[in-house]
Specification:
Layout (H helix, E strand, L loop, with lengths): L11 H6 L3 E2 L7 E2 L2 E6 L5 E10 L2 E9 L6 E9 L9 E2 L8 E8 L5 E8 L6 E8 L5 E7 L7 E9 L5 E8 L12 E7 L5 E7 L8 E8 L5 E8 L6 E8 L5 E7 L6 E10 L5 E9 L5 E7 L5 E7 L9 E7 L5 E9 L2 E9 L5 E7 L8 E8 L5 E7 L6 E7 L9
Antiparallel strand pairs: 1-3, 2-3, 3-30, 4-5, 5-6, 6-7, 8-9, 9-10, 10-11, 12-13, 13-14, 14-15, 16-17, 17-18, 18-19, 20-21, 21-22, 22-23, 24-25, 25-26, 26-27, 28-29, 29-30
Amino acid sequence: MDPRIGWLPSLLAVTVIATIYCEAQGKGECDSGGCLVRFAMPALRSGFRATMIDKKTLAVVWDEYRNDDVEYEVHLLLMDTKGEQISPQFTANTWSTSEQSSPEVAPLPSGDFVVVWQSRGQDLDGYGIFGCRFDKEGWWVGNEFQINTWTTGEQESPQIASLLDGGFVVVWVSLVGTRWTEGGLGSGVFGQRFDFLGNRVGSEFRINSRPELHPDSPALASLWDGTLVALWVSYQSEKPYARVFGQRFGMDGKKIGPEFQLVSNPYERQEAVTVAPLTGGGFVVTWRGYTDDYENGIYSEIFDASGNKSAGPFKVSSVNADSADQGFVSSLSNGGFVVAWTALSRTGFKIFAQRFYPDGRRKGQEFLASMRVGEHQIEPSVAPLPRGGFVVFWSWDYPHSYHIDMRWTDRVGKIFEE
């Protein structure tokens, strides 16, 4: 037996039936837009994320209820670009007391990859941020390690990005009202750099500038020039609406330019921010916008390599736009980007997607990414594939339990093949 399965022997039956299948070449649920690939595991799961670790392999992570159906743990498997499972599904975290959730994954230039997550009680006070490095075959490299050094209160919502020097940066939100007054750095968005071996480089650093704005839900991207950009949602106590702010910074954690804010419509609430790098050094941001006149939807802005706005804001969603939610943006290997989101249809919530050129022009029409009828599809995420392709992930909740589906497409919306 693969020892990776041995971390959770009681889930062996789940692991066996978790083998995915791809109904390709006219079999089963395929159409001109792509082919459905299904995880059929009978457990509640969410937070699906994936990344290419080489030209043929994706590392896929999510959080899933363990056997007691009370708390989450982080699961991991490797897949090829045709949807075939090439490693067993196993538990990525080795410390299994309490809950581990909200995983994120990033590749390293060495071919290894790093998974990070939040773990309750492991740093002895609320949630802390932890991670582990894995090799290209999915084996642990070294031990699970703690990322945050400040442990008072809650450290939540980790994000990770790889660096050009082979290392990586992790950012998260520190939620503790007394951190500023106790002589610390204040509640906010923080980061920590690591080298390619997983060793700390320097100390924990603060990214946001205004702790009184109560930052939350960060997003992170590594840009082509080696710098990074982080965005987050800030809830202003004196105003009823959340806003999205951002900050560019270098590998050393030093800020590049001032903190910036997205569109300043005073009547708009902004939530669920995501960000992706663009060819040439720029980046694209999406968020869920709400206004008092019900102009709701998924919106986007594009920034150039200097951090200046170059396009937008523009509305991404058009079909049933008022119900659009849970947007997710990913860059594509051909230079463009794709956005996926959830919107209400006549048969429940479905996943829609739209491709774009780097300048924000639409590439083709908005399309339905999910194919099933009679169930809700929610929580989309996207991972790029070679030659401009991408895979859209989502969860579905029929009948009364979450499953995970994926659609594999190429750059023209058909079944992706190498």
